[in-house]
């Protein structure tokens, strides 16, 4: 994905929805929100807090409200992109310019600003998650491996535990155990090679 440096550039790159994105941008820019680019997309902030974002996808475009869960949604326009996963974020999706009602969009944006001023936001759950070590992993956590495993962060330990317990067949569990033994001894996490340094 090409890095986007400005909102204008983002709109130009999404030619299939450039007119619609410009309309939404103009509505948002009538408010006190500050326009920025984060995660290669337009984001609008209030006192450095994310309030709204713009997005264009293959078949739809829209506005996402970072704490949209607090919006009244009288028009029943908001969707939760991932039920059971997304706690605060809500999206207002459109498929064509004709669907944009400027007054309704502005009302939602103003309500989101008010909610931000009131401090309404969903705080991330920072509680410690319990690590349940599967029996197969417990069996191999002998002397040297046990020390290495215990020196890993709780997150890395959970990654390994979930990797083993998610295998359905016993043969798969054994193959996975053989794969992770040297990784645990090296003190690396299961997915470290995929993470940016």
Automatic annotation (TrEMBL):
The name on file for this protein is: DUF1801 domain-containing protein
Q: Which organism is it from?
A: Jejuia spongiicola
Q: Which residues form the YdhG-like domain?
A: 19-113
User: SUPFAM superfamilies, from UniProt?
Assistant: YdhG-like
